[in-house]
Design a protein that fits this description.
The chain is an all-beta fold. It is built from no helices and 22 strands. It has strands at about 1-5, 10-15, 20, 30, 30-35, 40, 45-55, 55-60, 70-75, 85-90, 100-105, 115-120, 120-125, 125-130, 130-135, 135-140, 155, 165-170, 180-185, 185-195, 200, 205-215. The strands form 7 sheets. Strands 5, 6, 9, 18 and 20 form a 5-stranded antiparallel sheet that branches. The chain has a 5-stranded antiparallel sheet with strand order 10-17-12-13-16, with no helix packed on it. β1 (about 1-5) and β2 form a beta hairpin. The protein is globular. The termini are far apart.
Length: about 220
Amino acid sequence: MAAFGDVQSGVLVEHERGVDDLSTDSPQPIAAFIESADFDIDDGFDFGFVRRILPDLTFIGSTPGSVPRANFTLLPRKNAGSDYQKLTLLTPNPLSETDDVIPVRDTTLFPESGSLLIDLEIIFYTGKTATSFTGCTRGQLNTAPSTHTANTPVYFFDPATTSVRTSTFPVEEFTGQVFTRFRGRQMALRISSERLGTSWQLGAPRIDIRKDGKRG
């Protein structure tokens, strides 16, 4: 695929070819996502429990030789109308177990200080810039400092709502179904990709959800 853009000089220049960002010497993945509207059971009166998802995702058009992958993320609301758990992504560089500054795509939704959850590690931070968390203390609340791969999801962690977690799992070409244990009063489904050579098309994903308790 080739695309052309009009620059200020009035000259048409080729600025993109294929499925990756080729504006630098080293190709970079192009982040893309789509997110559903809320869904629930009985207007959020009942908790919904999700145990399985059928992704229905294809990767036609991906770069030959690549291993295309997309992430499916369930975003919960603890109560109907409350905020989703805040989410961003690490940059395309991995994070070591000793880094005390955590570079991410964006921190707009996050407070000036607080706690983060990356994989199974909880991290306290005391400040932020537009694209990083600063003053980080690693391996808090009985978790261990660890390395994290590029583009890993980063969540805001609130100990008061630990029973409501965002669930993210990878989907590849031959992933027919994914099993999970996930609950919330309302939730949305987000499909995203941040991987080199990945092009994906969404079909009609299905979610196995049932009632799981009522409002107390």
